[in-house]
Specification:
The chain has 311 residues and is α/β, with parallel strands linked by helices. Helices cover 37% and strands 21% of the residues.
C-alpha cells in the first residue's frame, strides 16, 4: 500500500437493526483511490460521549493515509445520526451499530468484503470487541485505550468497586425510566466530568478538557447520556463469551499510565484468539492516545501493519 493524502466523503446509511435510524458517517479514501478496484476497509467507533469528528475521525484519516478505506460514524441516537431519545448510550445498540456499518460497507463495490476490520477508541473499542464476537465478517480487531463500559461503570475507573456495590446505579437507571415515562424532561448523566472540579484525578480531568474545551470539543458531543442507559450499561460485558468466540486477530494499544489499562489486560487474558497482542505506549495515559501527536503516531505504526497483514 502506498501511504499518502486521503480524501473524505460524508454519507448517510440506514441502520439495518430495525430501529428506523439513519447513521451519519464519513468515509476516508486512500490516495489514488480507484472505484473500479477493491480495498480493505476498517470501521472506526468513537468513545462513549464522542462523535466522528473527534478521535475516531483522526484514526480513520490516519488509516486511510496508509491505504485503507476507513469509516468513522456517529452512534445511533448521537451526533448527526437520528434516533430518540437523544444521547441514549445503550451498549447493545452501539455494538449492533458496528455491524450496521459493515452491512453498508458490503454494498460498496470498491470494498473487499473478505477484508473488513474494525477498531475503536475507549468504549468504542469495547463495542468493537463485542461486535467481533458476534459478527464473523470482522476479520481483524484493533483497540486503543479500550474501555469495557460495563466494567467501568460498575467497577470504577481503576477496578476498585465490587459488582454488588453497583446495584444503586441500576436502581437509578430504573428510576430514570419511570421519570422519562411520566413525560418529565429526559434524565441525564455525565459521560465524562462536565466540570473540571468534578474530575477525581488528572486523567479524568483531561477527559473534561478534551470534551469541554477547545482541545477537542464539538457541537454534537454534549458530554452526557440518558440516565436510563445505566440499566443496560451496568450489566453489560463487552467481552461476553470472548473465551469461545473472539478468535480473530487482535491488536490492542494502551498507555502504560492509563487507569483503564486493566480492561485491555482482561481481554488479553480472555480472548480465544491465538493471534493477540498488547502494545504498550510508554508513559501515555488514557487520553494521550485520543489526540497526542506522538502517541497516535505510535498507535498507527502498530495498527496499520497489523491490519495490512491480517486483512
Amino acid at each position: 500500500m502506498n501511504p499518502g493524502n486521503s480524501t473524505m466523503k460524508t454519507v448517510s446509511l440506514p441502520n439495518t437493526n430495525g430501529l428506523n435510524i439513519t447513521i451519519a458517517a464519513v468515509i476516508s479514501f486512500p490516495a489514488g483511490f480507484d472505484e473500479d478496484k477493491q480495498y480493505p476497509a476498517i470501521v472506526v467507533s468513537h468513545p462513549g460521549g464522542g462523535v466522528k469528528e473527534q478521535t475516531a475521525g483522526t484514526y480513520a484519516r490516519k488509516l486511510a493515509e496508509q491505504g485503507f478505506i476507513s469509516i468513522a460514524y456517529d452512534a445511533s441516537f448521537q451526533g448527526e445520526s437520528t434516533g430518540e431519545p437523544r444521547q441514549l448510550e445503550n451498549p447493545h445498540i452501539r455494538t449492533e451499530d458496528v455491524s450496521a456499518v459493515i452491512d453498508y460497507l458490503t454494498t460498496l463495490p470498491y470494498v473487499d468484503n473478505s477484508r473488513i476490520g474494525a477498531m475503536g477508541i475507549c468504549a468504542g473499542a469495547g463495542y468493537t470487541a463485542n461486535a467481533a464476537i458476534n459478527d464473523r465478517r470482522i476479520k481483524a480487531v484493533g483497540t486503543v485505550s479500550m474501555v469495557n463500559i460495563g466494567q467501568m461503570f460498575r467497577n470504577g475507573w481503576d477496578n476498585s468497586i465490587a459488582d454488588s456495590d453497583a446495584i444503586p446505579f441500576i436502581q437509578a437507571g430504573s428510576d430514570a425510566r419511570t421519570s422519562d415515562a411520566s413525560g418529565a424532561e429526559i434524565a441525564t448523566m455525565p459521560m465524562a466530568p462536565l466540570k473540571e472540579e468534578d474530575a477525581p484525578n488528572e486523567e479524568l480531568r483531561q477527559a473534561w478538557e478534551y470534551y469541554h474545551t477547545k482541545r477537542a470539543e464539538y457541537c454534537t458531543a454534549p458530554g452526557f447520556a440518558t440516565a436510563r442507559s445505566l440499566n443496560q450499561i451496568i450489566t453489560y460485558d463487552a467481552f461476553h463469551k470472548a473465551e469461545a468466540f473472539l478468535t480473530q486477530p487482535l491488536m490492542m494499544v494502551v498507555g502504560s499510565a492509563a487507569g483503564s489499562k486493566w480492561m485491555s489486560d482482561d481481554l488479553m487474558e480472555r480472548a480465544a484468539s491465538n493471534d493477540k497482542h498488547l502494545h504498550i505506549v510508554d508513559g501515555a495515559n488514557h487520553m494521550n492516545l485520543y489526540d497526542g501527536e506522538a502517541e497516535i503516531a505510535e498507535a498507527i505504526s502498530v495498527l496499520a501493519p497489523f491490519f495490512e497483514q491480517k486483512l
